[in-house]
Design goal:
Blueprint (H helix, E strand, L loop, with lengths): L1 E7 L12 H11 L2 E6 L4 E6 L3 H16 L5 E4 L1 H9 L11 E5 L17 E4 L3 E5 L18 E4 H14 L1
Antiparallel strand pairs: 1-3, 1-4, 2-3, 5-7, 5-8, 6-7
Helix pairs in contact: 1-2, 3-4
């Protein structure tokens, strides 16, 4: 069995996509995932399964569509991948709640100028974009490429999910 961490896009953020985490956990168990744990109400779930990451993603997205009647994007990472994201954080001295990590399906493209950039610093990763928001994420007007399909978590959440994954291992 492999351990995976799933991050749902646009769930319980800004009054959109209401999804109780108890329902998410039940859906995961119905699919056959084991050791299911959710963390905070923004669509973070850890589980173990014999499925591939792609199979788990497809299964969870299909179940979410049945539940919500609309597509909810799911980004799945292994604990090793989350560990790599945390270890290669280009802003190690910044507070974890001031670092947003946009999780993407593929390599990011930062070739075009960024809209709304003020004091934020932005760095591309393998399948993510790191952004340091010194004035706070909530005050930023920065628009990163991939926000329409990716999902952002702050560094504190990624570290917490990694800790939960290590407890399952």
């Amino acid at each position: 069995m492999s351990i995976y961490i799933a991050f749902l896009r646009s769930v319980n953020v800004g009054g959109t996509g209401k999804l109780p985490m108890s329902d998410l956990a039940r859906m995961c168990r119905d699919i056959g995932f084991e050791d299911v744990q959710t963390y905070i109400a923004s669509g973070n779930v850890i589980f173990s399964t014999d499925m591939t990451p792609e199979g788990a993603r497809v299964s969870l997205e299909a179940r979410l569509y049945e539940y919500c009647g609309k597509t909810i994007r799911v980004h799945i990472r292994t604990p090793k991948e989350i560990s790599q994201i945390v270890q290669t954080n280009p802003f190690p001295k910044a507070a974890g709640n001031q670092i947003g990590v946009l999780l993407l399906d593929g390599p990011p493209d930062l070739s075009a100028p960024l809209n709304g950039q003020q004091d934020e610093q932005v760095v591309a990763g393998a399948r993510e974009i790191y952004a340091h928001y010194p004035s706070g994420i909530g005050r930023s007007k920065l628009v990163l490429p991939g926000t329409s399909t990716g999902t952002t978590r702050n560094m504190n959440t990624l570290v917490k999910m990694l800790g939960l994954a290590h407890k399952l291992a």
